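Quick question, first post here. What does this chain look like in 3D?
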Amino acid sequence: MDDQPDVILYTDGACSGNPGPGGWGAILEHPATGTVKKLSGGQPRTTNNRMELTAVIEGLRSLKGNKRWRVHLVSDSQYVINGLTEWIKSWIANDWRRGRKPGSPPVKNVDLWQALHALTGQHDMTYEYVRGHAGHAKNEECDRLAVAAIDAIRNA
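> Answer (accepted):
Ran it through. Tokens below.
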């Protein structure tokens, strides 16, 4: 069996101020054909973590067909990678709260985490953390997409 993913999803989020105007960028690459799709967007008042999550959500939402894709997510967000690989199971077990005790605070950005959890459950996911602003070409391109989305909001 081929271990190559169907899609490599590169993502990044950015925010000017936290909160402030924010943008996200995603690049989907189909290794078998070399096809590349770039997506971006933003919000006038948001946080960096919300934009990091939104980039992954929108990238996964853009996958077409009733197919279970093998997706390799590459992100410079430890928040996203750790959330998906380490923290989410306990959040779910604790009814989307950050602790077991009654009255524990809810998970921050729970709406986006729940949407992301539903989307990742539809695919076979693997995850890779890359250091941001360290010369990774696709990560740098996602950052440019996110910053351009912020600029578009400011200039609207």
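The chain has a mean pLDDT of 95.
Strands lie at 7-15, 20-30, 35-46, 70-75, 124-129.
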